[in-house]
Specification:
Urease, subunit C, domain 1; single chain; seven-stranded mixed sheet; 2 domains; globular; alpha/beta; 15 strands
Length: 409
């Protein structure tokens, strides 16, 4: 086993649940990694010897971001749709069909190349765990293909055959639900960890409560974990269904009533409200009251929802800045939601916190403190730490290659 000492850390934010804001901050710290796992954390002055060392030069290190909601397997462009929304055209989910057509027409090689570029982009912005949904094929073969391609880059793959009802099934919705819960689920289940449904009665393209219930029940029977798109365009049944089915996450939560908040608070141990403020920004929608949800006892996460229609951004630092500026979270609360909270929404305890035994998913900040994530919005200060690369960082930017050393003894 090869060990690596990471030193020169001005501020190590472990998110281990200790300290006044639960961030477990350690100044002037060091980390020792072996075989992609953390084996030691502590003061740099007490660091044990290791085979190699990386000096990050007085920067901060935080847990790698956990982006628990994305739609990255797609082709085509919907820039004109974004421009139309900025002039007042409302979003109702109809543009998804544009991406479905482009994605169906793309080759496997093209979709793989596009996804690889998006993965490199998000890693260059500090994300180390990504959930990827299908949902832009909406045939058995195309949904399986999307999951197989996504599975080359992540284990967190989600079947979203119930994204919208495709055009060819517009007059026979029940037949499409039967397809999703029958042949599509059977073929896709080996390549998926999760199943998701866009439960949104305010869109003629999405699924109502009964249809969503059928999808969730079938997914659970097939052994998949459950996720729900809910309460995005208006108050609706998504949150209540997610809680009823013990779904790991209900995402969007833009429009909630008191009963929804109470249900989420009661289910805080099992169901995370994953908030996607980039969507609100890109659709001119109201932002959820994240601070109010936390005060009510709800578990929250943050994710990008990177997709070609309603939020074409893979930047978790930008999401954090939005959560602080627009949703009432403190910088500490936002960072916890983007790491620990999103890891919980994936039912993972090996990521999101920097503690011995967890994965060595480290993100370096070109800043003296995590506060700069919100303090410097839009500035690319975060990047994932690549322990195999020269200089220890990815995306072509190194912490300081001249200070990487080989240690013996």
């Amino acid at each position: 086993m090869t060990s690596t000492l990471i030193t020169g850390i001005a501020e190590l934010v472990t998110c281990d649940g200790t300290g006044p804001d639960l961030l477990g901050i350690q100044p002037n710290a060091a980390v020792v990694v072996e075989d992609e796992g953390i084996v030691w954390i502590g003061a740099a002055t007490r660091a044990p010897a290791a085979d190699t060392a990386i000096d990050v030069g007085g920067r901060s290190i935080i847990p790698g971001f956990v982006d628990s909601h994305s739609h990255l397997v797609f082709a085509g462009d919907r820039g004109p749709e974004f421009a139309a929304r900025m002039t007042g055209q409302p979003y109702d989910g109809g543009g998804i069909g544009v991406t479905v057509a482009a994605t169906r027409a793309a080759s496997d090689d093209e979709l793989t190349r596009l996804l690889a570029a998006r993965i490199a982009e998000l890693r260059g912005l500090g994300t180390t765990t990504i959930e990827i949904k299908s949902g832009y094929g909406l045939t058995v073969a195309d949904e399986v293909r999307a999951l197989q391609i996504a599975g080359q880059f992540t284990t967190e793959t989600t079947l979203l055959g119930a994204h919208v009802v495709p055009t060819e099934y517009a007059a026979k919705r029940a037949a499409y639900v039967d397809l999703v819960t029958g042949p599509m689920l059977s073929a896709a289940a080996p390549y998926a960890r999760w199943i998701d449904v866009f439960c949104e009665p305010h869109s003629q393209h999405a699924f109502d409560a009964d249809e969503a219930r059928t999808v969730l029940a079938a997914g659970a029977a097939a052994g998949l974990g459950l996720r729900v798109h809910g309460n995005q365009l208006g108050r609706g049944p998504g949150v209540q269904l997610a809680v009823e089915f013990d779904a790991a996450s209900v995402d969007h939560c833009t429009y909630l009533d008191d009963a929804d908040v109470d249900a989420l608070a009661a289910a805080a141990d099992t169901t995370v409200a994953t908030l996607l403020p980039g969507v609100e920004f890109c659709t001119r929608s109201p932002y959820p009251d994240a601070a109010g949800l936390l005060a009510a006892g709800v578990s929250i996460g943050l994710a990008t929802d990177c997709n070609p229609g309603t939020c074409y951004s893979s930047s978790m630092p930008w999401v954090i800045s939005l959560a602080v500026r627009e949703m009432g979270l403190s910088p500490a609360q936002a960072l916890l939601a983007a790491t620990v909270g999103s890891a919980k929404s994936l039912r993972r305890t090996d990521i999101g916190r920097l503690v011995p035994g967890n994965r060595a998913d480290l993100t370096v900040l070109d800043a003296p403190s995590y506060l700069h994530l919100a303090y410097r919005p839009g500035v690319p200060i975060a990047r994932s730490l690549d322990l195999t690369a020269s200089g220890g960082t990815s995306a072509g930017r190194s912490a300081d290659p001249s200070r990487r050393t080989t240690a013996r003894g």
